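User: Can you help me understand a structure? I only have the sequence.
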Amino acid sequence: MKYRGLEFDRSRPAVIEFPACLLSLLGSPPILEYYVDGSLDGQATGSTPATASIPIAIGAERYLGVLYAVMSGAIDEVGIWSRALSAGEVSLLHANGFGGLFSSQFPLAEPLASNRYLWRGKSLAGGFARSGQTNGSSVFYVFGDDANGNNRLDAGDDFVTAEYFVAATNATLLTLSRQPLATAAVAQSYGLASVNFLNRSNEVFFTGEPDGQVFAWTATGTNPLQRQLFSAQHAGKPWHALTGVKTLEPGEGLAGLLVDPATPNKCYVIFWPPQRELPQSPNFPQTAPLARVLPNPAAGGNLASIRVRIWDAEGNASLPFLQFSPDRTNWWDVTNILFVDSLPYSLTTRVTASPTGSEHTFWWKAGTEGFASGITNIFVRARARDISLLVIGQSRCSINSPYRWIRIMTACRTIGR
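Assistant: Let's start by predicting it. Here is the structure, written out as tokens:
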């Protein structure tokens, strides 16, 4: 059987499992290829394709608005691409369906976390957030790191944002940001979207974070995404979703679905129209936290309880430390804290620190550490670190780096055995 120069095998079954007809626009004149069940079945020289919008017919010929030679049967899974597919891509379509051609064929390493908290809405988004990058796109992944393992987001947990740049079959982690949740009112939801907000070749990535603030992320080349405050107007209120909205204006607007805790039975749609530039937030100076050991007559013993109060002018969560010094010595050593507020302590621990001070209880195995070798009295002092002050680009300083952002109290407390 022949059709327009293509010859087909009559021994094929009447029901063809997966035919795909491709018109290659490479070369002059173009080549018409016919694939059956993922393999090339015929090839012929075609005519010059139309360059204007014209109606097309699938399963029949169309001439002067009339259909001829209408096939007898059914057609399903019709797809039209803006380019000719390669033989390998046709084979992949045959094996996996339309979704298989564009599905990820490589694993993406997830950022480390104590316990991942995923909002039941959307935690993934895709877009073109990089200026000057035309050979790939970004996949954005956000989640809450539930550090204390109580299956909810609260102060001391982290909000994690990761960006993978995908080009062909290669994926590179370009951005990894961990933002401590420091406010008392932490939502259990968040939103994310990549939006052509500035009507440029690159989009802006937005996150509506659990503290209610909205942040904009942009980058050039392969540099990490830079995070800046976009709106704090709805701080303390939960975002359930963000999305781009096409309007009559150039670019896209940003819309968010928000619920006010004061009226939980209502939801609100907040809309920002597209702009030419992102709003510039005022640059407020950040100060280091202040920590002080509080008097506690019953602090001594093998397992010592130490009460500490921590202040932070901006209300950022802090990583606490305790140090001890034996009486009549001039050196200080870091204690091995077992628990903070009844939760296991680690270098990922975050505790609240408010402008008026937040009180916490530390449990320290003083009997085997502080009171060793017959020592009966020791001095104890507290330190706290604001992790947000240690971000360089999007990379954290090492936890063992110098205490650059810690204010040390000269006053300390004595505990006795």
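Now, to help you interpret it: Confidence is low (pLDDT under 50) at residues 1-19, 390-414. The chain has three domains: 2-102, 116-272, 290-416. Let me know which part you'd like to focus on.
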